[in-house]
Amino acid sequence: MKVGKELIGPAAFYIGLLIAVVAAAAVEPSGKLYGVLAVLGIIVALLNITAEEVNMFMISSIAFIVSALGMRQLIEASGVHLASELTNLAANITVLLGAGVIIIALKAIYKLAKSK
């Protein structure tokens, strides 16, 4: 059974996703919202991602971010109106994941630079 610190990382992830979904429908995007999501993303990255999971985390997060941004551009270029809630949801999750990717990428770069 997980206790204490081991629960913080997963809880931060689920809370971040919940905030991203609820805020997409109920809250106007703002710096405060993105700040909260970024902090949760950093907590998730620092507490959840082990050395063995770095590559999978970075690749899957980057794949999501690039896909979401690419699909948004494709949909807008096609002239289809996308509900603002969907756009906001993609942006919210991108902030949550992106902040974590930055931290993990910096840790990986530091580790690579330090080892030489």
Structure report:
By secondary structure, the chain is mainly alpha-helical. It has one domain. The protein contains 4 helices and no strands. It has helices at 5-26, 31-48, 54-77, 84-115. The model has no long low-confidence stretch (mean pLDDT 88).
Helix percent reads over 70%
How far apart the termini lie comes to 39 Å
Please state the average pLDDT score.
88
- Poorly predicted ranges (pLDDT <50, ≥5 residues)? none
Q: What's the number of domains?
A: 1
The number of helical runs is: 4
Structural class: mainly alpha
What's the count of strands? 0
What is the chain-wise order of helices and strands?
HHHH
Tell me what portion of residues adopts beta-strand conformation.
under 5%
Question: What Rg do the Cα atoms give?
Answer: 16 Å
Q: What's the shape?
A: globular
Biggest pleated-sheet summary: none
